[in-house]
TrEMBL record:
UniProt-recorded name of the protein: 5-formyltetrahydrofolate cyclo-ligase
Keyword Metal-binding: yes
The organism of origin for this protein: Terrihabitans soli
Cofactor(s), by name: Mg(2+)
Record-listed substrate binding positions: 41, 46
EC number(s) given by UniProt: 6.3.3.2
Family label: Belongs to the 5-formyltetrahydrofolate cyclo-ligase family.
Keyword Signal: no
Length: 185
């Protein structure tokens, strides 16, 4: 599976991929000054958004991280500054303290196990992002950016009714525009 492939990447190759993907993301996102961007804390060999976080901070963006509020509820997005203490949340994922200010993201960086060029993704089966992205898509929809290694691409992800497609996917090799109607942020 794709998780095993990405987890097997040598550290130097993973770091180079993270740097290259960050450059592609900044190219795609453009002016992010004052925009709130939800990042994630990587697990299971996910593409590390740390180089992107540095670029976003330099460009004046406000960083946030998702926090699981309850097992079957949508996640909340909390403001986060590098160096802020993080709690160990659901599944051991590091997340901001419950006391951190809640924010509404303009851009959501979405981790994934696999993706296709239509913008559909496979997560980890717990549904946290699906439960969160659905309600967000019905409101003032943030730009949904998949963030992954190119090796995580598959021909087609099976689609379910509740799935919300990504607007774009950034990898270390390219920017994939999945929703031409939302080419800009």
């Amino acid at each position: 599976m794709k998780i095993a492939l990405r987890s097997a990447l040598p550290d130097a190759e993973a770091a180079a991929a993270a740097t290259a993907a960050a450059a592609h993301a900044i190219q795609l996102l453009g002016d992010v000054k004052g925009k709130t961007v939800s990042l994630y804390m990587p697990i299971k060999g996910e593409l590390d958004p740390a180089p992107l976080a540095v670029k976003l901070r330099t460009a004046g963006a406000i960083a946030a991280l998702p926090r699981v509020t309850a097992g079957d509820e949508p996640m909340a997005f909390r403001a986060w500054l590098a160096g802020d203490p993080l709690d160990k949340g659901f599944g051991g994922i590091r997340e901001p303290a419950a006391s951190a200010p809640e924010v509404v993201p303009d851009i959501v960086l979405v981790p994934l196990a696999a993706f296709d060029r239509r913008g559909f993704r496979i997560g980890y089966g717990k549904g946290h992002f699906d439960r969160t992205l659905g309600p967000l898509a019905r409101g003032q929809r943030p730009f949904l950016l998949g963030y992954a290694y190119a090796l995580q691409e598959v021909e087609e992800v099976p689609r379910e009714l509740h799935d919300v497609p990504l607007d774009a996917v950034v990898t270390e090799t390219e920017i994939i525009h999945c929703n031409p109607a939302r080419d800009g942020v």
